[in-house]
Design brief:
Shape: globular
Strand content: 15-25%
Number of domains: 1
Order of helices and strands: HHEHEHEEHEHHHEE
CATH topology: Rossmann fold
CATH class: Alpha Beta
Radius of gyration: 17 Å
Bound molecules: S-adenosylmethionine
Length: 241
């Protein structure tokens, strides 16, 4: 399994320089609004507002970290944001993107989601956007997420889950995601193979209802389950009791 995981990480290393451009073209920038709403809802749900510690897992090129900063309410103070990813090249892009933010303190760390370098109950908000699907040992990662989260802490997962297309619109969007998006991403990144991986990884992943069950088993209580763009992307938000 580690071989297959290493290949996935190598693939992200290879596409890192063109990842943002491909992403924007594929989602037409709509992913920004998904991230924005996820951040806004999480801040609303969080009981504390001072010295907040955020960990963004599979942070990639740093878009979710930027979204946390841009969408922080006036009365909330973030103490520390950790970005965590096993791809050195993605972290390099994140570093360039985020270096102009003077506050809060941003720290980028290298590693896989199945072993987080944080202490038990030390994180207020843990996010992972379009990352969990790439973690082959995702159940181990979920254990880690819950371990490091404070009681009352929030987990935010944005993901392309395994499709459960029922309506005609969902079927059309499923076709678009499986056939058209990988082609657009592949052309822009000059790496068709990497973008063919997108629909495959969705099919091999859990559905959103399966994820909710896995979270409940770990003591998480669901706060929001919301589909975007005919359920192409889904937001799961839960709180640790
Ligand atoms: C599709 S990108 C998402 C990046 C970013 N979160 C975003 O929203 O744009 C997936 C990220 O997952 C990372 N990744 C792959 N395998 C991982 C693992 N086992 N643990 C943590 N992150 C992983 C990749 O390096 C890549 O940066």
């Amino acid at each position: 399994m580690q071989d297959k995981q290493s290949q996935i990480i190598d693939m992200f290393d290879a596409i890192a320089p063109k990842y943002d451009m491909a992403n924007r073209a594929m989602s037409l920038g709509i992913d920004r609004s998904w991230r924005k709403e996820a951040c806004r809802l999480a801040f609303l749900e969080l009981k504390s507002s001072q010295n907040i510690v955020i960990a963004d897992i599979a942070c990639g090129s740093g878009d979710m970290i930027a979204s946390w900063i841009h969408n922080t309410p006036k009365e909330t103070h973030i103490g520390h944001i950790y970005g965590y990813d096993p791809s050195q090249e993605m972290l390099k892009v994140a570093h360039e993107k985020l270096q102009n933010f003077s506050t809060p303190k941003i720290e980028l760390l290298k590693g896989e989601a199945k072993a987080l370098p944080f202490e038990n109950t030390s994180i207020d908000i843990l996010s992972i956007s379009f990352g969990l699907r790439n973690v082959l040992e995702y159940e181990q990662a979920l254990d880690e997420f819950v371990r490091v989260l404070k009681h009352g802490g929030i987990i935010v997962i944005l993901e392309f889950f395994k499709p459960q297309n029922t309506t005609l619109l969902q079927k059309l969007m499923g076709f678009y995601t499986a056939k058209i998006l990988p082609f657009v991403g592949g052309i822009i990144s000059s790496n068709l193979k990497a973008y063919r991986y997108l629909p495959q990884s969705m099919q091999n992943f859990v559905s959103v209802s399966e994820l909710e069950e896995l979270m409940q088993k770990r003591g998480m209580h669901t706060l929001h389950l919301k589909g975007y763009s005919a359920n192409v992307a889904t937001l799961y938000m839960g709180v640790k009791s």
